Amino acid sequence: MRTPPILSIAIPLLSLTCCAAQTVDREPGTEDPNDSSRSRVMTFPDADSLKSWSFSNGPEWPGATGRLAWHADAGREHDGAAALSYNFEKGGNYVAAIVPLPPSPAVKAVRLWVHKPTANLMIFRAVDADGEAFQKNVRYHYPGWQQLEITIGGWGFSWGGDGTFRNPPREFHILIENDGGTRAGTVLLDDLQWVYEMDPDSPTGDAQTTYVESDFTDTGHWRYEGSPGGGFDENRSWKYEFDDDHTSTNLVRDRGILGRPQRMLVRITGDASGHELFATIGSHFQNFERSLGTIDQTGPMTLDVPLGDMKSWRHFGGEDDGIVRYPLRLIGLSLRKKTETERGSLRMMELAFDTAYRPDSETVALIPTVSTSGDTPRFSVELRSLAEQTLTGRLHWSLHQTDRLLRGGSQPVTLSPRGKPTFTEIEGEWANGNVAEGRFRFRADNGVESPEASTTVARAPRGDVDLALNPASRMGVGMYLYRFHGHPEAKLWMGRMCDLAARAGVKWTREEFHWNWIEPARGQTDFTFFDQLVDTAHEHGISVYALCCYWTTWTKPYTDEGIEDYCRYLETLVRRYGDRIKHWEIWNEPNVFFWSGPKETYVKLLKRAYETIKAIDPDAQVLGCSTAGIDTSFIKMVLDADGPFDALTVHPYRGSLDPDRFISELRNTRKLASGRDVWITEMGWPSHIGGLAERTQAQHVARTYICALASGAARSVAWYDFREDGADPFFNEHHFGLIRHDLTPKIGYLSLATVGRLIGTAEFEQELDVGPGLVGFRFRNGEQSIAALWSTGASKLVRLTTGAQSARFINMTGGPALTAPLQGSTIMLLERDTPTYVVAEGPLKLEIGDAPARITPAQPAVHPGDEVSVRFASDEGVLIDLQPPPGWQVEPLKSGNELRYTVPRRVPAGRRQLLGNVTIGDAVFVLPVEIEIVPQIVRG
Q1: Alpha helices in 475-527 (DSSP H)
Q2: d(Cα 363, Cα 417) in Å, to the nearest integer?
Q3: Does domain 765-849 bear CATH number 2.60.40.1180?
Q4: pLDDT tens-digit map of 826-862
Q5: Are 745 and 459 in contact (CB under 8 A)?
Q6: CATH, domain 853-939, list 2.30.30.60, 3.20.20.370, 3.40.50.300, 2.60.40.10
Q7: β-pairing, 714-719 with 677-680?
Q8: CA 527, CA 143: separation in Å to the nearest integer?
Q9: CA-CA distance, 560 to 563, in Å (whole number)?
C-alpha cells in the first residue's frame, strides 16, 4: 500500500562509498569537462567557467524560479563560485544545476564543496549512457562550507529505462528541493572533482567485517513453514518432508542485515539429499532470490554467494528494477525438492555476512524493546557490535514522560565482537502518566559511540467509548483489517484492533476489498471474511471506505475485457455493501508501479467504474486518482480526459512537514480538483532504527492532522498505518504504525487520540500570529476554543496569557502540560515540532511574551572534534543547569554565562541534545538544545 516517494520527493539517504576516491591532479581552471585530457577540478574563476552548465526549474512541477550564476568572491578561498538560486514562493518542487560529464574515462564519483545555509534537501542525479535518470538524496544542515562525495551508483530511484546503470554517465544534476528549509535562497558550489578510480588500498569511509547474523539457536527469530511432518527445533535441526502438496520447506526470518552486506555465508551439516537451498533477500518494495547451492555432501558445508549489487540474483515485486536499497533484510531460506529423497534433516550451524559499515555511526547498533510486566514498563536493549574486538563501555539511559525527564543513569556493558548480541534490562515507570519512554546510547572506552535509540509504550484511554458511527468525522486511519484474511483468529484480532481504534476516536478505516480473494474464479464469490470485517468495524463505530484493487489472476489486466471484469466485481461489492459503504476508491497509486499499464487506461477504468457504481447507488461517492504524492501531472491527465470522481484522494508523503507548504499544497489541490473534496487516504512517517524516533513520529501524527484540518481542504485524513506491518527493527515499512504488530500502543497512538478528542469534529477558525519561530492554529468546538501551538525551530520557554478566565494546558499525548506561574503569566515549554493545546470555554486571545530562560548555541551544526560555545541567561528567580551529552568536555568561560563544549572526534552524525534543566518555583522544565553533528565528508 505504501509507496516510496519518487522523483523529487524525499527518499531515504543511501551512503554507499566503500573505498577512498582518487582524482586526477591537474591545475585548476575552466577547461571543458568533456575533454578527458584536461583538468578535473572546477574552481569557477570567471563567468566562462559555467559555459557548459545549464539550469532547470523542474518544469514537471511548475512554479519554481531561480538561476545559475557566477559569483566573483563567494568561493571557499574568496574566489569564484557557482551560485544556484531558488524561489519556491509560487510552488514548484526543485531547481537544478546540470553539468555534462566526460565520456572517458567513466566518472565513478563526484566530490564537491557546498555552502548551504538552509535545511533544504539536496538531490543528486546522473543520466547514464542510455539516457536513463538515476537519483539519490542527501539531507544535512551545516552553515559553512561542507564537502560531499556522491558515488555514481547505489541509486534510490530511476526512471526512463530498465533500472540498470550503463557507463559512461552523461550528466550530473545538483538539485535543491522545496522540502524542509527556506522558500528562497542561494546555494554555492565550489571545487568540483571528477573521481575516476576507487582505491581499494587507501583508508576509506567504510570498514569491512564478517559478522554472525545467527547461529540458529535464536529459534524465536525463525519460523518454520512446510509440511506437518517437518519442523525446526532448538537443536538447530531443520527436518523436512516433501509430498504432493509440499515441494519446498522454508525457514522464515524477516530481519534486517547490519551494514551493507557484500557476501552471504551459510554453514550447515548436509545430508547429501541433492535438494537445493535458496535465499530470499528483501529490499524496499522488492525481493531478490538466488540459489545458494545443492546439498550434495554429507557433513559440514559452507554455501557462499555474493551480494553487492546483486546482479546475479533474480528480483521481483514492487519497483522490480533490480536496484539494491539498504538496509537489506533476510526474508528466509527455502529448501526445494530436486531428487526423489522425500524426507531428511539439515543441521543449521551459522549464518554470516561480509558487510561494509561506517565506523563513525554503525559500529554498534542498539535495538530497544519494551514490555509491561504487570503494570510496570520494562525496557530491554539488544546491543550488537561489528567491531573485530571486544568493546567495553557504558550504556547511558534516560526515562521520560511526554514532556518530563524522570531519571537517568548508566551501567557498564561488555560487547562481544562480530555481531554477537548482548542484552540488558532497565525497569521503567509510568509516574502517574500515560507514556513511558526509554532513550539509550552506548559509549565505549575507546570513544566509539552508537546513535541514540529509543522506544515507547502507551496506555490506551480508559472509560466509555463512543461506538456510534459518525461519517462527518475527519479522523481516519488505514487499519487494513483485510490483512487478517486467512488468520485462524481473524475476528478476534480485528475486534481487538477496532477497540483500540475506537478508544483513539477513529471513525474511518480504509480497507482493500481484495478482488482475488472475493472472486478467486470467474463467477465464484466468497464474502465471508469481508462480511466479518465490515460488521466488526461498524460494531465499534468505524465507517469503512473501500479500496477496490488489484487485478485478479484470471482476468486480462489493462484490457477492455479486464476493465469489464473489474466493473462486474465492483457491481457485486456495491450490491452487497451499498447500504453500509458509501465511498469507493478506484485503485491504489496508479501513477506509480501499482499500475503497470498505460496511464490513460486508468482513466478508462475510472469512467466505467463511476458508471457502474452510480447506476446501482447514485448517492455513493467515487474516490479517484489515489496518487503517490500529490502528483499534479497525473491528476491533470485524468481531469483533461474527463475522468469522473466525486472526491480526489492523494498520498502526500514527504521527508519533512512544513506547515505553510503542506496547507498551501492541499488548498491548491482542492482548486485543481474544481473544489471537490480532498481525501488524504495515506500519509505517514516510519519509526524504524535509522529513521524517526517514535516520539518524533508522534509529533508528525499530531501536526499532520492539525495542518490538514486547518487547510479547510481535507475532508478526511488517514494515517498510514494503524498497526505496524512487522517487527524487523531496521525495515521502515514495518514501522509506520501507531500500535505495534502485537497491538501494544506506541506514543503516536495517544497523539492521534488527543487530536481526535480535541479537534476531530471542530471547525477551523484562524491561524494565530504567535511570533517568530512559532506556529498556532485555533479551532472551535461548540463553545470551546482550542489552540494548537508549537515551535518550528529551537524549543522555547514562553510567557503565555490566554485572555480567558480559565484555561487548560494539554500536552501532545493528552496529559496535563507542565506549566508554572510567573509574574502574572503562565510559563510553558513549546518544544520543536511538538504540539501543546490550550483549551478554554469561550474565546481565547493568546499573547506570547519573552522567554524567561534562554540557551543559545553559537552555531547549530558542528563537525566531530569541533568546539561549540553555548550562552545562557535567565530572569530573576529562574535557575538553569546545563547537562552535556556523555563524553563531551566542558569548560566555563570568563563571562560566567557561557560554556564551551568539545565534541568527541568519534561521535556519530545526527542531532545531539544539551539538556537545560530550568527551575521556576516547583516546576522543572527540561529545555532541549539541539546541535547537529555533521561528518567531515557527507557521502551519498
Answers
A1: 490-503, 515-518
A2: 10
A3: yes
A4: 999 999 999 999 999 988 889 998 889 999 998 889 9
A5: yes
A6: 2.60.40.10
A7: parallel
A8: 59
A9: 5
Rg (CA), the chain: 29
Please tell me the distance from the alpha carbon of residue 190 to that of residue 49, in angstroms, as a whole number: 11
Encoded amino acid at 855, one letter: I
207-357 falls under which CATH superfamily?
Galactose-binding domain-like (2.60.120.260)
- Helix (H, G, I), strand (E, B), or coil: what is residue 567? helix
Asked if residues 504 and 756 have their Cβ atoms less than 8 Å apart, the reply is yes
| 3-class SS string, 855-919 | EEECCCEECCCCEEEEEEEECCCEEEEEECCCCCEEEECCCCCEEEEECCCCCCCEEEEEEEEEE
CATH 2.60.40.1180 domain extents, the chain? 765-849
Q: What's the rounded Cα separation, in Å, for the pair 844 and 173?
A: 50
- Residue 374: how many other CB atoms lie within 10 Å: 6
Determine phi and psi for 618, rounding to 5 degrees.
-60, -25
Quick one: residue 814, left, alpha or beta (phi over 0 = left, psi -120 to 50 = alpha)? left
Asked whether 333 and 223 are in contact (CB, 8 A), the reply is: no
> Given pLDDT bands bounded at 50, 70 and 90, which one contains residue 402?
confident
CB atoms within 10 A of CB 879: 11
* Euclidean distance between CA atoms 704 and 702, whole angstroms: 6
Q: How confident is the model at residue 30 (pLDDT cuts 50, 70, 90)?
A: very low
Q: Which residues pair with 820 in a beta bridge?
A: 827
List the strands of the sheet with 898-902, edge to edge: 853-857, 867-874, 898-902, 889-892
Q: Which CATH architecture does the domain made up of 476-749 adopt? A: Alpha-Beta Barrel (3.20)
Handedness of CA 655, 661, 667, 670 (dihedral sign): negative
Instruction: Give span(s): CATH 3.20.20.80, the chain.
Output: 476-749
In angstroms, the CA 476 to CA 718 distance is 4
| Residue 749: pLDDT band with limits 50, 70, 90 | very high
Q: What is the DSSP code (8-state) at residue 723?
A: B
Q: In DSSP terms, which residues pair with 106 in a beta bridge?
A: none
Neighbours of 463 (CB within 10 A): 5
pTM for the complete prediction?
0.89
> Tell me, what amino acid is at 356?
A
Residue 163: partners with Cβ closer than 8 Å, 6 or more residues away = 132, 319, 321, 322, 323
> Which residues of 417-472 form beta strands (DSSP E)?
422-427, 435-444, 453-458
Strand partners, 384: 365
Cell of 592: 506509480
Q: Which three cell numbers stand for residue 879?
A: 535557575
- 272 Cα distance to chain centroid: 45
Give the C-alpha separation, 355 to 285, whole Å: 22
Q: Do the bridges between strand 784-791 and strand 774-781 make them parallel or antiparallel, or are there none, so unpaired?
A: antiparallel
Per residue in 609-633, pLDDT (tens digit) is 999 999 999 999 999 999 999 999 9
Q: Dmax over Cα atoms in the chain, in whole Å?
A: 87
Measure the CA–CA gap between 56 and 359, rounded to whole angstroms: 37
Interatomic CA distance for residues 303 and 349, integer angstroms: 11
Residues in the chain: 940
Q: Which is nearest to 359 in space by CA: 262, 444, 264?
A: 444
- The SS3 of residue 345 is strand
Q: Give tens-digit pLDDT for 38-91.
A: 336 788 999 999 999 999 999 888 889 999 999 999 999 889 999 999 999 888
Give, for 751, the enclosing helix (H) or strand (E).
Answer: helix 747-759
Distance between the two ends of the chain, CA-based, in angstroms?
Answer: 28
Q: Which three cell numbers stand for residue 246?
A: 509440499
Q: 20-199, what's its fold?
A: Jelly Rolls (2.60.120)
Comparing CA positions, the residue from 775, 745, 782 lying closest to residue 761 is 782
Q: Amino acid identity of 96? A: A
